[in-house]
Design goal:
Radius of gyration: 27 Å
Number of domains: 4
Order of helices and strands: HHEEHHHHEEEEEHEHEEHEH
CATH topology of the largest domain: SH3 type barrels
CATH class of the largest domain: Mainly Beta
Shape: elongated
Strand content: 15-25%
Number of strands: 11
Distance between the termini: 68 Å
Number of helices: 10
Largest sheet: 5 strands, antiparallel
Strand order of the largest sheet: 6-5-4-3-7
Structural class: alpha+beta
Amino acid sequence: MRGYAQRYVPGGDNANLERQFERDKDDIRELGVPLETIEPLGEPGDNHNLRYRIPKGAYELPDDVRFDSDEIALLGLAAMAWREGSLNAESRRALVKLRALGISADEPVLGYAPRLRLRDAAFEPLTQAIDRHQIVRFDYLKPGEERARTREVIPLALVQYDGRWHLSAEDLATGEGKTFLLRRIVGKVTVGKAAPERPGDHTARALAELDEVWQRGVADIEVRAGSDAALRLAHRRGTEEVAPGILRVHYVDLAILADELAGFGPEVLVVSPSQLRAAVIERLERTVADHG
């Protein structure tokens, strides 16, 4: 590593330099670069003449995997998108590995990289628990409940659906499959002991189940012509106009849709279902009460 020879003092105190070397090795490993330690032949345990190398087979891509400059640019764009939590660390490792390939990319496109943010604090510990097959415990507050209930589950997959992150998990007590909205996890996620293996494509299954819920969740909304509500609801996925001024929308979570509709105030009127209509009225009445 550059700079060590200049700072080395023959026969002097090089403790700071040795600590710097250890930190640099940790930084390299943190970037996803594997380091092998090689002891001198015939001198096991001799730490003064250790050598380090990056094993080619453990770091380079297989011979049959090749990318052109456009593909490298797109992969770099995807890696740069994440800027938080564990995905940020993974994206940095990916960028280092892509640059190590030595293929030039179309750099200007990387200036337009989006920034994907994770506002759910539970995301990172749940991701790690899934990777390590560990049981987790957290407090979950359902709509209409005053107190959160503690859930202990085997986390299986994290999926994004309709712009929100969901956890697909198995309830440890009942063995039933559950889906949790990350925004309703309150407090800290506690990671526990190892979980039993649950093979299968849990991501695909979770998305399919959420899509079934979305297909069943149908609401007819009367909207004021030319209003913000009319514009926004008309552009929701799957929305159709079933009558003049009446939009039929799909939803996964009734409480979330009720929050959204209440925010439009007099621009909307729920025609059906009655549960959604009651939920919107309850939110409006609460707003009036809170503000006198």
